[in-house]
Amino acid sequence: CDSSRWTFGIMAAPPPSRRPVVEVKNIEENRIEFVLTSTDVSVANALRKAIISEVPTIAIDLVEIEDNSSMLADEFIAHRLGLIPLVSSRALDPESPVAFRDREGRIRSFQWHHEADKEAECEVKFELDVRNTDDHPMEVTTQHLKLSAVHGEESQEDCEVKPVEYDPDYPVVIAKLKKNQTLKLTAIAKKGFGKMHSKWSPASGVTFTYEPVVRLHHEKLEELTAAQRKEWVEMCPPGLLKFNDLTGMVEVEDKPNVGIAFSGEAEKLAKDTFGPEYVDLVKVLPRSDKDGQPDRFNFSVESNGALDPVTLVRAALWELCKKLDILEQSLHPEDRRFL
Questions:
Q1: pTM value?
Q2: Which one of 182, 226, 328, 332 has the lowest number of neighbouring Cβ atoms within 10 Å?
Q3: How far apart are CA 162 and CA 182, in angstroms?
Q4: What residues are paired with 213 via a beta bridge?
Q5: What values do phi and psi take at 40, rounded to 5?
Q6: Per residue of the chain (339 residues), what is the pLDDT tens digit?
Q7: What sign for the dihedral angle of Cα 339, 48, 305, 176?
Q8: C-beta separation of 42 from 56 below 8 A
Q9: What is the DSSP letter of 110?
Q10: Where are the beta strands (DSSP E) in 200-290?
């Protein structure tokens, strides 16, 4: 997809004033917050859905249990294994700008299962073999899930796929074994999309909110006494309004809480306290363009560790662009004037 379509990338036809822009606000290990502007809610929602379900990852899809004397049924253990996030950089499309590169700089990517000629090109094999010989219960964790040395007669030494480790001291627990209990299995991980099954979704949570514009009705506020204004502010949930003791007036918080702003609590309290004619003491609207359509969206994306959050968002943008390219190519020439 032509990256010039975004100022971090989307459609070619709109004028520059409607070219989407991404402004990154905060980046953490598994979280990113950014603002998407100069577009409409349909594009924002399409990006949200792309992050959740259109970015490929790797997850365990086939489990062969040789010995299981634990308290958990085979199906339960297989389900738990499938939900363990795996480092999935190699699942990304080799043509994308965030394609995985090995230590020598070569692009390497897992193929889809139906396209591959060899097992090692589309699968990763794990092994787990644990027996508790101690009197105390033993936790079987992702640290016991080892990458097989060979799969399909090919080495997996440089596979770069492994369970996500959030904290070495607290690995993900798969099962617990009492003395003399055993768990032995092999697991095959494959490439997939979140829309196929949630175990392939790289995101723990993706939300976007409108940016609030808070307006106070100063004429009606003047009709109230300073004591009434202060009482109303104190009743309202914190994060939207504040009372200035020096001027005796109501003011908007420097950074209004988005959830509180759009909850409608302040308006309801004004109506219940002073009467229905005061319901508009404060009015909260989404920041909009000149046509009155919301055009600024605050995103919060939390990765489950399969991909780092920056790579996740960039991959989702690329997948979205690719879909638009397919749509454009499928239209008749005379219909392309709408793009």
A1: 0.82
A2: 332
A3: 23
A4: 285
A5: -115, 175
A6: 544 445 444 444 444 457 889 999 999 999 999 999 999 999 999 999 999 999 999 999 999 999 999 999 999 999 999 999 999 999 998 888 888 887 777 888 888 888 888 888 889 999 999 999 999 999 999 999 999 998 888 888 888 899 999 998 999 999 999 999 999 999 999 999 999 999 999 999 999 999 999 999 999 999 999 999 999 999 999 999 999 999 999 999 998 998 899 999 999 999 999 999 999 999 999 988 888 889 999 999 999 999 999 999 999 999 999 998 888 888 766 655 555
A7: negative
A8: no
A9: P
A10: 203-210, 212-216, 241-244, 249-252, 282-286
Residue 86 is encoded by which pair of tokens? 């795996």
Buried b (16+ CB within 10 A) or exposed e, 108-139: ebbeeeeebeeebebbbbbebebebeeeeebe
Is residue 19 a contact partner of residue 289, using CB atoms and an 8 Å limit?
no
Return left, alpha or beta for 49; rule: phi > 0 is left, psi -120 to 50 is alpha, else beta: alpha
Using the 8-state DSSP alphabet, how is residue 142 labeled? Answer: G
Give the integer Cα–Cα distance in Å for 177 and 71. Answer: 8
The length of the chain, given as a count of residues: 339
Tell me which amino acid residue 23 is: E
Tokens of 55: 């970015």
